Queue: 3 jobs
Job 1
Amino acid sequence: MDDITPDMDYQKFNKVKVILEEADLRPLIGVVPYSKDETLRIEKPHEDFDELVRDLEKKGWIIALHGYNHLYTTKDKGMFPINEFSEFAGVDYDKQEVMIRQGLSQLREWGINPIVFMAPGHTFDKNTLKALKVNGINRITDGFGNSPYIRDGITFYPISSRRKDCISDKEGYSTFVLHTNTMSDEGIEAFKKMLNENRDKFISFDEYLNIKPVKRSIFGNIREYLMATAKHYLVSKKASKGTVIHKQ
């Protein structure tokens, strides 16, 4: 679940929360420590936000550091070129290290223990990985693949290139992102229906963290880069035809 902030759309968030709890599934949620993204400001900030997230963590939900302030300041595609905008890719190492360190500090002040990094826009670079490791974070939810893999000393938990692959009969594991702020009531009901009809194909994210990662080869890295480039091209092509595309 993406874009979790004190001023998110709580009504939609809670609807999806209930669906997941009824299915006994514990997701990963990406919490933005210092959100300045106007598109994420739906409600007046809730003073009990930190209590809400602490309670979810106690129930087994996994917390991710979702960037710093969720503002895209570069057009660098980084190592995973699925988008051409970034909060991190193309930013010098020292600044990235400060952003990650201060972001983690804020979440910990709220009594939250983030153990995964979720890059806004899915874009990051080698400096991001270095800064994460320096600050004790060695897991990222990103990349393409059918199982967790290790690259540059970081364990990656792949996202799905297509949502329908998550409920296919293909062997392996991947994730998909829910942006509850932008989900319609129909979209929420469609998610509930999909989940109910395919419950046996889903696991909680804490279970995903226990899947043994594999070593990613240079050829796997190249294949991933090409797949991400192809998806970026296809999404851009749809957008140019007037299709509304939400920035992942």
Note: Strands lie at 28-31, 62-65, 116-117, 139-140, 149-151, 154-156, 214-215.
Job 2
Amino acid sequence: MPALFSAAEFARRAARQTPPEPGEDYGDHRLNPDLRELFAGRALRDAAVLVPVVDRGEEASVILTKRTEALRNHSGQVAFPGGRVDPEDASAEDAALREAMEEIGLERRLVEIVGRMPDYVSGTGFRVTPILGVVRPDFHLSVNPHEVDSVFEVPLRFLMDPANHSRDSRLWEGRERFFYRMPYENWMIWGLTAGIIHAVYERLYA
């Protein structure tokens, strides 16, 4: 049996996922039920992110980025590599791999897709498909400074520990909105990215 927080065990658990139960949807509305009505009247924009788990033996890590302040959506936030699904993309997987290459220079030949999560609906109007990938450790990144300020890794063990999943809130458009946050060293992981991480925990490790 592979070590619990190894890339091999992550891939095994990703492959063993069962389809979501009817009504088992993921998104910011889980902590903010009133958002369901808002989503019902909006056309959601399709996006995909890569959840890149680096094979580092018994203790895998996850690549995250800090987006630049100049971006229109989720500026300055910690995020997975990813973005909108373009008409030219063959699939959500293709979009996630393309974005990872464009944003941080992660070559798709170094990424093994091991599964995908159910779509995650964000309060900003995106339907995000998280693509689960295992990354060979011999990568060399090249950051696109127009989109990414910095890249760092967080131990998978840390992210899959629910003790690190704090709930917080802030006022947004005059209403209190709740979200997960996961402080790690000098980084604050919160919002959409923390929500996806919590969903990965629920489906693969809880």
Note: The domain at 7-17+39-163 is CATH 3.90.79.10 (Nucleoside Triphosphate Pyrophosphohydrolase).
Job 3
Amino acid sequence: MFKPEIQKMLNKLRGDNSSGASELINNALAIIQFQLDLISNDNENIKELILDLSREIINSRPSMAPLINTIGYIIGDKEVLTKKGIIPKLYRFRADKLKRETTLEKNFRRFTTSITRMNPKIMVISYSSTLLNLLLNIKEFNAEFYVLESRPLLEGRRTAENLSKKFKTHMIIDAAIGKFIDHIDLVLIGIDSILKDGSVINKIGTFPLAVMAYQKGIDVYAIGTSFKYNIKSHYGLNVRIEKQPKEEIYNRQDLNENLEICNYYFDTTPPKYIKGIISDIGILPPKKFVKRIKKILPFDWFHLFLKDNDQVIK
């Protein structure tokens, strides 16, 4: 259906298991721009083509809310979509994205100012480009980090290597949470998606980390922009957490048929275990974040992807 170059870019987006949301958004925008460059008539109605491409982009990362909201920003709820109409939206999106990120950074700085005198020991999990960049860009912040390695892809190693350029950093295996939790003052996590009840989808292992921190009286804060809110959840649709290749955690061909290898990249943490969400709309408890975001984000456009109350995006 799509040109080979487009399909190759889609496959790369689907198979990218190491990049953060901001990087994936940039890759998705590049796909849309490439498709537009193939259109010769600036005023041709290319709505069906763009909707099909949008479905492919969203389905490539079904649990990643920012991709859905990016698509919504660009296509809106329009009867006619043309190259001439979409290109200005791409430029505006990049400007608005920078504005959201700048406001998030201001709010994060305000948060770190309130704890900087503690010289806190902070535990983080996996790799979040948003969280990592925020931490590295705050010159006056002093902290010590404990980084979970995050099996099976070990994204935590990348986080630890980068944090150690500025902070004292310990990298530990995921199963060592209990051994080190009593050393910790604070837990910071990234966000893959925020669901309508305030739950947070993030790298698997986040849920047990948050539960243990909660039991120890340690605050957990999730960091990300307002685009992390998942519109699929808003409409009551299932946000699928996909099972990943078993070979990533157990690479044997002669497995007993009674042995099932379960490999998932993400889990869901209920709002009970999260003290607050630090975003471009403030520092808010999860349920207040959801209440606020429902007044900000557009939702009507998503009807383009719904048919007779069935889920078109699977």
Note: The CA atoms of residues 94 and 292 lie 23 Å apart.
